[in-house]
Amino acid sequence: ASPIGSIAPTTPTTTSLFLLVLLIPLFVFLSLSRSPSSGEEREEAPTVTLLIWTRPFGEDQRLPDCWELLRVPGCALTYDAGAYPRADAVLVHHREVAIGAADPPPEPRPAAQKWIWMSYESPAHTPELWRLEGLFNLTMSYRADSDIFLPYGYLVPRAGAGTDARALPLSSSSSSEPPRSLFVAWVVSNWSEEHARVSFYRQLSRYIRVDVFGRAGRPLPGGGGHVVRLLRRYRFYLALENSQHTDYVTEKLWNAVAAGAVPVVLGPPRANYERFLPRDAFIHVDDFPSARELARYLLLLRAQPARMRRHLAWRRGCGLRQPDFWAEHYCVACRAVRRTRGRTAEVRHLSRWFES
User: What does each C-alpha distance from 151 to 78, 123, 192, 326, 355 come to in angstroms?
Assistant: First the structure.
């Protein structure tokens, strides 16, 4: 029998307990991500100036109004390097400094100014960290032990005071939904024979058909922004990360969740994924001794809808939040600066921490 066969079905009660116990660290975002309501007024708060020193990947993005976006008051965001002498904090996206497209902010820094290091790539794709030792006061990333933690996605309850109106409601499959006529999909742009995910795909595709989209496969219908729409036609999605590191769970997983496809994951260990999702919400490649056994289990689920529903029943009562890159990140960082005003610490051993 498949190892996953021992997993008990998730009930609404166990899903609720999961949300209350395992997702407590993520509930901090509920207060940040409430949709604007007409009854609320902008809170009077001392203004914090946050200078965006490097635009992530060179994207020329309009800066948000943090009050309108997340109800974060008193934030002045700017790209203007001339604001450096008066900025309360400077946000540095790692990649541009690492590849030499930008220099770090100049020393000496203004008194009490905080420098924030930000990266959403895995350690395997975050080079030159050693060059930045001792420069920063705060870290921001997908890692739960960052000073400023904002993951690629997270679940929220859909009932009670904690409801997040900005969350996407998740429904379990039902007879009213159109049938999913297709089996397994994989969307991949960064193809490398050195990646474990490519090796895994080659093994799995010996036993079942996998439809591959992206630069390494068929063009995505409608372009790259229509991944979720594509996945609504599939039962399973290969959410395979380019490298395996702590908390590195990217939009690949959350796009599958949003589409109602069951994600088959390759990344950090199962226990790490279970910090973000109930255990039935995904299928981990490590649950099986071989790709052949995993293929057998997927075929079994396709043939037995009752067993398939077990992997979807947890969705009742849940919502999904996927933060907007990079607008929400700037506003969450600004709020963190306000909360730590008057306190300045130094990030020690940046590379040792992030690469662990």
Answer: 23, 15, 25, 12, 17
Whether residue 292 sits in one domain with residue 227: yes
Structure confidence by residue, pLDDT tens digits, 110-153: 989 999 999 999 999 999 999 999 999 999 999 999 999 999 99
The answer to whether 234 and 185 have CB atoms below 8 angstroms apart is yes
Active-site residue set: 121
- β 114-118/138-141 pair status: parallel
Q: Which residue type occupies 114?
A: K
227 to each of 180, 189, 223, 251, how far by Cα in Å?
15, 12, 8, 10
Same domain, 308 and 327: no
Domain membership of residue 100 as a residue range? 32-152+323-354
d(CA 153, CA 349): 27
Q: What pLDDT, on a 0 to 100 scale, did the predictor assign at position 171?
A: 79
Question: What pLDDT sits at residue 46?
Answer: 81
- Mark whether 144 and 54 lie in a shared domain: yes
d(CA 295, CA 255): 22
